[in-house]
Design brief:
Strand content: 5-15%
Number of strands: 5
CATH superfamily: P-loop containing nucleotide triphosphate hydrolases
Pathway: Metabolic intermediate biosynthesis; chorismate biosynthesis; chorismate from D-erythrose 4-phosphate and phosphoenolpyruvate: step 5/7
Radius of gyration: 15 Å
Helix content: 40-55%
Strand order of the largest sheet: 2-3-1-4-5
Order of helices and strands: EHEHHHEHEHHEH
Number of helices: 8
Structural class: alpha/beta
Distance between the termini: 8 Å
Main location: cytoplasm
Subcellular location: Cytoplasm
GO molecular function: ATP binding; magnesium ion binding; shikimate kinase activity
CATH topology: Rossmann fold
Catalytic activity: shikimate + ATP = 3-phosphoshikimate + ADP + H(+)
Bound molecules: adenosine-5'-diphosphate, shikimate-3-phosphate, magnesium ion
Shape: globular
Largest sheet: 5 strands, parallel
Length: 169
């Protein structure tokens, strides 16, 4: 296996956190969820950070977490948050330190997967409308990935199989 680390990117609800868990188990690698890393470092939940400190503060904490979790290490599967790709600085950290895998899903699938979880500050209000608007704004945000995998109608195991096949190449 060539890649030092695997970095999962993609819109909210594409399954980054879930697939990272499966991949880390398979490879015996360490799973890192960037949101969890931020929550631990900041001693606050993601919704609290957005509400109390604002999104720009969260984004700075996100960049710090990416550096902390990816630079100079190997054997990690890092699940990023859906907006971690928006800063060029973050994209550079990801591509320099691992195989970047973009997970995608159609709008229906995303809405279905995120609808019972109230912990995504950017999806407050009319859920379908918010997902549609953000998906439009982020249409090309994940294009820099080395690999792109559609997760709609696929099991977590199948998605992990596909990523593992790319690693073996
Ligand atoms: N391939 C899949 N098939 C069915 N449900 C999935 C799949 N991947 C993720 N889920 C479910 O969708 C929800 C969101 O997944 P999560 O891993 O938190 O996404 P992300 O980290 O990309 O926002 C969770 O409830 C998870 O169990
Ligand atoms: O898309 C985004 O900007 C965000 C995605 C979330 O992570 P998930 O993609 O794991 O839901 C989390 O980082 C935060 O709520 C912001
Ligand atoms: Mg996640």
């Amino acid at each position: 296996m060539n890649a030092r680390n695997i970095v999962l990117i993609g819109f909210m609800g594409t399954g980054k956190s879930t697939v990272a868990h499966e991949l880390a188990q398979r490879f015996g690698w360490k799973r890192v969820d960037l949101d969890a890393s931020i929550e631990e470092a900041e001693k606050a939940t993601i919704p609290q950070l957005f509400a109390d400190k604002g999104e720009p503060y969260f984004r700075r904490a996100e960049t710090e977490a990416l550096r902390r979790e990816l630079e100079g290490v190997e054997g990690r599967v890092v699940a990023t948050g859906g907006g971690a790709v928006l800063a060029e600085e973050n994209r550079a950290i990801m591509t320099a330190n691992g195989l970047v895998v973009a997970l995608t899903a159609d709008e229906e699938t995303i809405v279905r997967r995120v609808k019972d979880d109230p912990n995504r500050p950017l999806l407050q209000g009319d859920l379908r409308e918010r997902v549609r608007t953000l998906l439009g704004q982020r249409k090309h945000a994940y294009d820099f990935a080395h690999v792109r995998i559609d997760t709609s109608d696929k099991t977590v195991e199948r998605i992990a199989d596909e990523i593992a096949a790319h690693l073996a190449r």
